[in-house]
Each structure stands twice: as structure tokens, then as C-alpha cells.
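Quick question: what would this complex look like in 3D?
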Amino acid sequence: MTTLRAKVTRDVALGVGLCAALGLVVLYLILRAMFLAHFDDEVREDLRSIANVTNVSLDGKIGVYWNTDVLTDFGMHGDKLFIVLNREANDTIEVSPLLEGSDWRPSFAHPRGRPVLLDHTLADGRRFRLAGQRMDAQWGWDENTPTPAGFKDVEVVVIAGRDAAPLDTALQHLATLFVTVGLAFTLLAGLVAYWAARRGVAPLSRLTADLEVSPIEQRTREFDTSGPTEVGLVAGALNRQVGRIQMALARERRFLADAAHELNTPLAEMRTVNDVALLRPDDLPRLQHAAEVTREVALRLGDTLRALFALSRGESGRELPQWIELASLFDELWAAASARYPQRNLRFVYDVDATCYAPPLLLRGLLKNLVDNAAAYAPPGSEVRAASREDARVTTITIENSAPELGAEDVVQMFEPFWRKDSARTARDHAGLGLALARSYADAMNVELEALLDAEQVLRFTMRLPHP
Amino acid sequence: MRLLVVEDSLILRENLVLGLRDAGYAVDAAADGEEGLWAASEVDYDLLIVDALLPKRHGFDLIREVRARGRPATILVLTALGAMMDRITALDLGADDYLVKPFDFDELLARVRALVRRRYAQPASTIAVGSLSIDTSTKQVRRDGVDIALRPREYALLEYLARRRGEVVSPRDIEEHLYDDGAELSSNAVEAAVSLLRKAIDRRGEQSLILTRRGLGYMLRAE
């Protein structure tokens, strides 16, 4: 696993190295071209030096009148050479000492004009840069000597130049220098990048260390968001996530505590009924009563456990949807609910001719819990109303009943597991799981379930089931 | 001894009352916090057994209010809330004991006995008054080592007088501590109960252990 520091160091070093290499190569090429141009200028200067001393006499004889004391570089131990050829460049008129004994005759077919640059390597391996030009040998020794009458220009080929070794060495040194500079720059960039990355990731390292201090669920203080923006954003996001996790854990703990309490109370009832009955083992009516109460409580306990199981299933269940006729479903649900609360004398008024597209078991679970809730808590003798509306895209179902004791704050909490209007949980035939189950089924169906308490204290549940 | 059970679960309430009455206590019951507070304010109970999650008024709030009104009754919290913080809160508010549901009824009875002893600042479970010995845990009464069989009501009267020995106890006090709301009281119920108790514990020809202070009440005397 690579570290961020190593990655940043490597990337920066590579990037800087490539940029430096590119820059240095371009710079080297520019300098090399300048060096070569300068060198060639010097070679042309050498050519001019020899051209100046290449003279023709009145009888047409050509001579190169150079003084070894002046043009020492053209001497035997110098680093320059020249050769003067006849017009056809097939006969040597004069050569410098370095070419004496050599049978080298350059084939120079260039016309008159600007000097032409040539390369030549001596037998000893030395490379020479030369300039050659076809020109007229000059009359006299200086410009002031008048040209005699009948003088005819004589064309010659003059070639002169110098050893290219200094140029090659200079270019080699330049290349070495640039490579060294490039490598040093890359190394330095890597070191700077390493140091900068180390400094840069230090807040991240501190954040990581802080994260390791305590488990998320036990964390009591927030992550520090005062560092660099990027780390501050991560810390802020962590704080939000930790908050959400802790809220979820708190909700889960509350749910478990509620569930434990919900199961504890019927257990306490059963145990106490039996303990009290056994105080008088000879009192048969009391024992019989205890048995009946125990059975009743056990049945209620079973309902609570089934609701808890349903809650866990509803939250994870998946079922294929299909078209469902709501009228027959509501007939069935209301028959069951009214049989459960016959003494409440409720009236169920419903107009649910629509069809909807939903997973059948989940929809039944959702509507059953809403209908049961209405049947259990609507004021005795009141109406429970249900309606449906279907358009091209969605079926909307509403179930409503009067809820005079509810407040707006209750509507916010009523989907919480084990919530009851009265915290005492006096309504022993309800565990307070019905609406939590309804929400769970709605969530599993991905259906929006909305509760609204209007100004007339009518509690209305609305579901919108989209069509396929 | 007269107890008040404040519990919203009908099953628990009925059975607590039944079991405690079987154990010889006069027991009243209330189904919610408001009713419980009203009863605790009206009657000088020896012990309140209070659920925490009560309708209308939370059990802890009831305890706070009872203590604020200076009622001397000991208080036992009987609740499904078993968390440490709940226990601490209840005890700090003035509860004397805390029992988590579900509970063993015998343990509840033992705690009730202990709290009644505490109510009268008598840590021992046996009360000795002269030659009379009353074991409050077994409800056994002896005089000079001889067992005396008493009916529950007579026993309750003797225990109450013994707990307040040396004091003149008014008939109204006796009524309040021996008879719960469900009892049908005749105008001379206390006098009749004292008379029956005297017959059971007194020796023939000797002065009664229970003295009558005319117009004031009764007093259990040490011989």
C-alpha cells in the first residue's frame, strides 16, 4: 500500500523531473545551435584569413603568402588547416602543414558565392570543421596597389577551418552540466515535495490518530475542523457521520430498551399473578384466575413478538408488486378490525374503488396497521374513513379518523416504535408498534406515507403508490 | 400497616393488592399518578409502592411531590426501568427502595417489611414489648414463649400498636393504618378489634397490655 506522502513525492519529482528535462533539452539545443553558429563564424573567419593571403601575381602565378609567426594556429602544432585548390579543385596550390603529406583533395563543386561549410576527419581521427569558397585570388598585397593593365582574375578554391574538438568538448560539458542540473533539480524537487507532503498530510495523520482514540459509538467530542480546508471538510463530514451513527445507535438502544420494557411488563404481570396465586395454593378459583390471566398476557406477549418480527421483516422484505383491488382488501381489513373492537361502535365509511400496483403482502401489512390504529384509537362511536383516488400515474389512499387528544408534536413522533400518546403505556392491548410497522412496510415498498392532523383534529394518513 | 399501590397495569395492580392483603396489609390502589398523589396526600400511608411510568403524572414526579409535602411514608419504586440512572434518580428524589420488574413476590414482601420497619425506625424484625414478642416476618406472636394465634386484623393492630409502643394511638390513626378503602367499617370497628386483641394477648386477672386513654386512644404498655 503506497502512502499519500510517497505518491505526492513521486508524482512531484516525476513531474518536475520531466519539466526540467524538457526545459533543459530545449535550452541545450538552443545553446548548441548558438555554439555551432559561433564556431562556424570563426571557421568562416579562418577562411577569410587564408583568402586574404591568397594572391595572384601578374604572370598568373598563385601563392598563399602566410606567415607562420602571425597565423601560428595554422602551423604544424596548431589546430587549424587550409588548402587552396585550382579552379577545378583538382590541383592543390597550397596546403597548411597539417595537410602536408596528405592526398586529401576535397571535391568542391560549389559555385561562387557564400562560403560552404564542410567536415573533414584527419587520419589521426581529429575532426575539423571547414569553410570553403570559390573566389578570385587577389592582386597585390593590399587594396591600394593598383591593378596592372592586362591583369586577369584567377579563380581558386580556398578551404580553411579548425579542429572541432573544443566545440565537441564544450557541447559535451554543456550536456553533462544540464543532465547534472536536471537530476539535481529533480532530486531537490523530490525532497521539497516529500517535506511539503509530510507537512501537508500531518493534519490528516492527526485526524487519523484522533479517529483511533475511541470507538465511534463512544465518541464524546467532535473532530477538529480548524485545520486546512480539505482536512476540515473531511473532519466536518466525519462529525456529521458520527452524529448520524450515534443517533442511529441511540435510536437502536432506545428501541431495544423499549422492546425490553414492553416484554418486561407482561412478564412481571404473569409472574406476579402466579406468585400471588401460589400464596394460597388451596384457593382454586384464584389459581384458575391466575391461569386465565397468564394465558391472556401470553397471547398479548405473542402479539408483541409477532409485531417485532414483522417490523424486522418489513424493513428488509422484498416482494414483487402486482395490481390489487383495494375494495376487497379494505372489506377484509375492516371486518377483522371491527371484530377486534366490537365495543367501540365505530363506523367505517370507505370509497376505495381504485386499484393500485404494490407488493400484496407489504400493502396488506401497511393498510392493516393503519386500519387497526384507527379502530383502536378513534373515539368510540365515531367514523373511520378511507378513500382512494387513481390517476394515470399514481393511486392515492387516505385513511382518517378523529383524534381529539393528539397534538401536532405527536404526529412527528407517532411512527417511532413503542410510541403511545401516554408514556405510561396503559393501553396494554397495544405495544405501540402499529404505526412503526406501517412506516416500515411503506419504506419497504418505497411508498410515501404522510400523517397530517388538521384543524378539526382529524388525523389523516395518505399514501401515494406510483403505477409502473 | 397501610400501603398504597400506584400502578397502571390493571393485572399487576389487582394482584399486588391481593397478595399484600393476604400478607396482612391494608392496601389501597391507584391507577395513575394524579390519583396516587391525591391518595398519598389524603391518607397517612406507611408505604407507597409506585410504578415509574404512570399516566397523567410520572412516578418520579409523584415521589418528588410527596416528599415536598412532607409525607413520612416510605416509598418503594416498582418499575421496568432498570437502568442505573433511573435508580439513582428515584432514590435521589426520595424513594427508599427500588425493585425492577419482573420481581419475586416474596422479595417484594421482604422489602415491604423492611421499609415498614424503617418507617418506624425499628431495624429488627422482632418487636419485644415486655413479655410479648412479635416476629413481623413470620407474623408470629408469643407471650412468655407461648404462641398466640391471632387473626390478620388483630395481628395488624398489635403490630401497629407495638411499633408505636409508649404512644397513645388514636382510633382514627388505627383506622387509617389498618383499614383500606375497600374495608367496610362499623362505627365501633376499632373498639371491637381492640377488645378481640385484648382477649387474645391478656392474661386473665391481670391488667390489660393495651391501655385505654379515654377520649385519646390506646397504648400498648410494657409490663
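Answer marked as accepted. The domain at 319-466 of chain A is CATH 3.30.565.10 (Heat Shock Protein 90).
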